[in-house]
Amino acid sequence: MASRKVGSDQEHGSGVVDDRPAKRARVEALDSEEEDNSAPQVAPQASDLYLDTINRAKLDFDFEKVCSVSLSNINIYGCLVCGKYFQGRGRSSYAYAHSIHEDHHVFINLESTKVYVLPDGYLVNDPSLEDIAYVLSPKFTKAYVQQLSSKSTPLKTSYDLTQNSYLPGFIGLNNIKKNDHMNVIIHALLHVPPLRDYLLLGSFKGKETELVKRFAALAKKLWNPRLFKSQVSPHEFLQEVGRESARNFTLEKQGDPAEFLGWLLNTLHRHMGGTRKKNSSIIFSTFQGHLRQEQQQIVVRPDTDTDAKPQFDIDREVKTTATPFLFLAVDLPPPPLFQDAVEKNIIPQVSIYSILAKFDGVTAQGNAGILKRYKCQQLPPYIILNFKRFTKNIFVEEKNPTIVNFPLRGLDFREYLDAPPNHPPTAYDLIANVTHESTAGTTRDKENTVYKVHLRASGTDDDWYQIQDLIVEKTRKEMIFLGETVLQVWERRDVTSKEEMDVDR
Ligand SMILES: [Zn+2]
């Protein structure tokens, strides 16, 4: 491989190329307390001394950046020979000890991406290490990011170290324990262009919270066109999710993708400095819409037919509230309770339009003595729909197996909107679809249950990928309709066409 330099003929360790600067560097390493502020010698001859020992196949930088010995997260170096993390590089440090005990000599500072040879303490400046720094900390140009949304330019295939081809963005995420319900949300959100572009183009090296930094870092890895391995582990991000959510969402516990999504959107919004105001964060400007809710107390009159659906009484007061939303929860019709032998194998189906009738401002729903009806007042550029498939009671969680029929393009929300003048178009195209699979009779708590996500690739009209943790497959459109959808992301028509114009200009 062209980027790998073969080291000098001299033996590693004892036969140092030039004794004098090496000694100077050692002294410096000894004295330096604040290692990263020191400016170690660059040893010109030593720059390629150990570079042939670097093993790129062992590197992925996906795991939480803590010392494998001290568990500290301060001043961590990655050994480029074995991939392990160690704290510090001074004489009493764990990285220094590792260099002597294991005879591993090349270390990268995980924060600054600077590479050092230990125990000598040389700073190595070598262009052949640039690919490693890029995997650790990918950087994107505006032109590159704009191309990701372009309809005229298909996404470019990349190749990893072992020459496996992959499409950046459409790569597997490790299911470390039981985090498939979080993986599908990560994929769905990181395919929403405004949010994706914001995360890819920002540097996130400043005062941002750890959650925001790690989410951005994950976005950059997922879309990295120069990965060593064509898969990414969300470990570092999910560790922070566990801490930030007080262990509500952990990779050890199967959970509900929609609950995780709700938590993540609200937390990211807050961490990005968002307030209650419209467009006060990229989360709000991308996903926030407004809904009008009308409600009325249900009064049961003795003379009325108790089987009749409760209706709004025009003579009584209707309480109206305006509610912002980040996603719309929709209900599936209850499946038939009893099926005869003939119908047994027929899976109940419903059109997405009849589900969305919840928001037509007319259809009323009664619950706990309150009658409610809804209508959208403002639709966001991206609409997230959550299909409520699970119902809990004290004893058991039940899954509604109803299949939802929907178009892939041109879902029109006009009927569910009191469109103010100058409201943007109301036609939306599907960009992400999350499904749940389990064998009959089981629910998501059981072992044999899995979440998958379908993602549309830009560049063409028809390319869809199905991702289930590490399994990435190009899929036929027809397959998307067969799953039990739990969550969808819809993109407003004008959003992409506008970006398209920006790219062409
Ligand atoms: Zn090592």
UniProtKB/TrEMBL annotation:
<keyword id="KW-0479">Metal-binding</keyword>
<dbReference type="InterPro" id="IPR001607">
    <property type="entry name" value="Znf_UBP"/>
</dbReference>
<dbReference type="GO" id="GO:0000245">
    <property type="term" value="P:spliceosomal complex assembly"/>
</dbReference>
<dbReference type="InterPro" id="IPR028889">
    <property type="entry name" value="USP"/>
</dbReference>
<keyword id="KW-0863">Zinc-finger</keyword>
<dbReference type="InterPro" id="IPR050185">
    <property type="entry name" value="Ub_carboxyl-term_hydrolase"/>
</dbReference>
<dbReference type="InterPro" id="IPR038765">
    <property type="entry name" value="Papain-like_cys_pep_sf"/>
</dbReference>
<dbReference type="GO" id="GO:0005681">
    <property type="term" value="C:spliceosomal complex"/>
</dbReference>
<dbReference type="InterPro" id="IPR033809">
    <property type="entry name" value="USP39"/>
</dbReference>
<dbReference type="GO" id="GO:0008270">
    <property type="term" value="F:zinc ion binding"/>
</dbReference>
<feature type="domain" description="USP">
    <location>
        <begin position="171"/>
        <end position="493"/>
    </location>
</feature>
<feature type="domain" description="UBP-type">
    <location>
        <begin position="46"/>
        <end position="143"/>
    </location>
</feature>
<keyword id="KW-0539">Nucleus</keyword>
<dbReference type="Pfam" id="PF02148">
    <property type="entry name" value="zf-UBP"/>
</dbReference>
<feature type="region of interest" description="Disordered">
    <location>
        <begin position="1"/>
        <end position="42"/>
    </location>
</feature>
<keyword id="KW-0507">mRNA processing</keyword>
<feature type="compositionally biased region" description="Basic and acidic residues">
    <location>
        <begin position="1"/>
        <end position="29"/>
    </location>
</feature>
<dbReference type="Pfam" id="PF00443">
    <property type="entry name" value="UCH"/>
</dbReference>
<dbReference type="InterPro" id="IPR013083">
    <property type="entry name" value="Znf_RING/FYVE/PHD"/>
</dbReference>
<dbReference type="GO" id="GO:0004843">
    <property type="term" value="F:cysteine-type deubiquitinase activity"/>
</dbReference>
<keyword id="KW-0747">Spliceosome</keyword>
<keyword id="KW-0862">Zinc</keyword>
<dbReference type="GO" id="GO:0016579">
    <property type="term" value="P:protein deubiquitination"/>
</dbReference>
<dbReference type="InterPro" id="IPR001394">
    <property type="entry name" value="Peptidase_C19_UCH"/>
</dbReference>
<keyword id="KW-0508">mRNA splicing</keyword>
<protein>
    <submittedName>
        <fullName>Spindle pole body protein</fullName>
    </submittedName>
</protein>
